[in-house]
Design brief:
Layout: H1 4-11, E1 19-24, H2 39-42, H3 46-52, E2 56-61, H4 71-78, H5 90-97, E3 107-116, E4 122-124, H6 132-145, E5 148-149, E6 152-160, E7 163-168, H7 202-218, E8 227-234, H8 242-246, E9 250-253, H9 257-265, E10 269-270, H10 281-289, E11 296-301, H11 303-309, H12 313-331, E12 337-341, E13 358-363, H13 377-380, E14 386-389, H14 393-400
Parallel strand pairs: 1-11, 1-12, 2-14, 9-10, 9-11
Antiparallel strand pairs: 2-13, 3-4, 3-7, 3-8, 5-6, 6-7, 12-13
Helix pairs in contact: 5-9, 11-12
């Protein structure tokens, strides 16, 4: 099956131009009241405004009309991989992102620590976002409580805050990864039972359900972190090489394991970032120090998403403004093409990802004049790029950087 990635692979050429893709995670939003302003429109962003006036803008649907993207499909789409063709569970992304080697037949699962109330009703799907130190403490407790299930070794790893990773290690016979979530992604209901979606995944479903029960028993003395929720099961994924497809030596600047894992799986080099994962100064330093070594930089900003998931409109506005303050440092590197985009929308009003298209900005020397005056959803609707599919973004960046040959005679 051929797609746009295959076509671009045949046209890509090596040049000296540099591309910087900034992904403001979950940046798309909604107004709190009808006809009000979104978080982006509310934020004071003089640097983004100035950049927008010198750029082309549009909107991007990462998967398709009305489809709410997960972070994995959203990022794959931005990297030019059709998310309906290239599918990966979040478990593998998180596992690879923290340096766990997956073997053929293993299954990795992304977990959330949660707060359960009476009758096991979910009160908080993220257990109040515990500290990384508390996360590590709970993981150590579970390692002692669930070292194996029915002879299958169980490995448990800290990711960050409420997130953790479990790897079920296959013993001869491969474990299937096609099963339903334990996480209902809403509060006020009980965790769900994992259900196998094919015969090969029946054993894995049993392992997951046994783990949930044993974890709750081990955590019953905890007031806040007393349950676990699972989603994103994955075996070992394989993707075409990003460098082979685009003729780009690519670097990832991210802090959260899942995003580092995804970048690693497509073949990007994951750069070391100093400082806490919320701090952007370390990310800017990593780009600056490695600017001469790479053709393409993927720069990830997380807190525009997590503040939306927490329903904190004002704090999401604040995180956007913090990014705006450091934007001049990125522009000072003089990328030939810079893109600013989201991997999905996370409106504070909904406390979750949503289907709404995300604004896209592309600035380069070869763009047409645009009427959009700010980097907001409303202004992006006016832009010359129109409404695009996510996998269109990389070819547009490549073209603006003069890295694509002509197609056909």
């Amino acid at each position: 099956m051929s797609d746009l990635l295959d076509t671009v692979r045949g046209l890509a050429k090596k040049t000296d131009s540099k591309i910087l893709m900034v992904v403001l995670d979950g940046v798309g939003g909604l107004p709190l009241t009808l006809n009000g302003d979104t978080e982006l429109a509310t934020a004071k962003t003089p640097n983004l405004d100035a950049l927008a006036k010198d750029s082309q803008l549009g909107l991007v649907e990462l998967v398709g009309a009305g489809i709410t993207p997960g972070s994995g499909p959203g990022h794959l789409s931005l990297f030019g991989y059709d998310p309906l063709r290239y599918v990966v569970g979040r478990g593998a992304l998180s596992a690879v992102g923290i340096g766990v080697k997956l073997n053929s037949g293993d299954v990795a699962v992304r977990g959330n620590f949660a707060t359960l109330g009476r009758d096991r009703l979910i009160l908080d799907r993220r257990a109040g976002r515990p500290s990384d130190e508390k996360n590590a403490e709970i993981v150590a407790l579970l390692k002692g409580a669930v070292p194996e299930i029915d002879g299958v070794p169980v490995e448990i790893y800290t990711e960050s805050e409420h997130r953790f990773v479990v790897v079920f290690r296959a013993q001869g016979e491969p474990l299937g990864a096609n099963l339903s979530d334990v996480d209902p992604q809403v509060t006020g209901v009980q965790p769900m039972q994992a259900q196998a979606q094919d015969p090969a995944s029946a054993k894995t479903a049993g392992l997951v359900n046994a783990f949930v029960a044993r974890a709750e028993e081990a955590l019953k003395g905890e007031e806040q972190v007393n349950g676990v929720l699972f989603r994103g099961y994955s075996d070992v994924p394989h993707f075409p090489s990003f460098e082979d497809a685009y003729q780009l030596k690519a670097a990832c600047i991210a802090s959260y394991p899942m995003y580092k894992g995804l970048a690693s799986l497509v073949g990007m080099d994951v750069l070391d970032v100093e400082g806490h994962e919320d701090a952007l100064d370390g990310k800017v330093a990593a780009v600056t120090e490695n600017w001469a070594k790479y053709d393409f930089f993927y720069f990830h900003v997380k807190k525009t998403d997590s503040t939306g998931e927490d329903g904190d409109f004002a704090e999401k506005v604040h995180k956007i403004e913090i990014f705006d303050e450091l934007l001049p440092q990125l522009l000072a590197l003089k990328p030939d093409v810079i893109a600013i985009v989201g991997d999905h929308s996370t409106p504070s009003k909904l406390l979750s990802h949503s289907w709404h298209p995300v604004p896209l900005l592309i600035r380069g020397e070869h763009g047409r004049k645009d009427v959009a005056a700010r980097y907001t959803e409303e202004e992006a609707q006016k832009g010359s790029l129109g409404l695009r599919r996510g996998p269109d973004v990389m070819p547009l960046l490549m073209a603006n950087a003069l890295k694509l040959n002509k197609y056909g005679a």
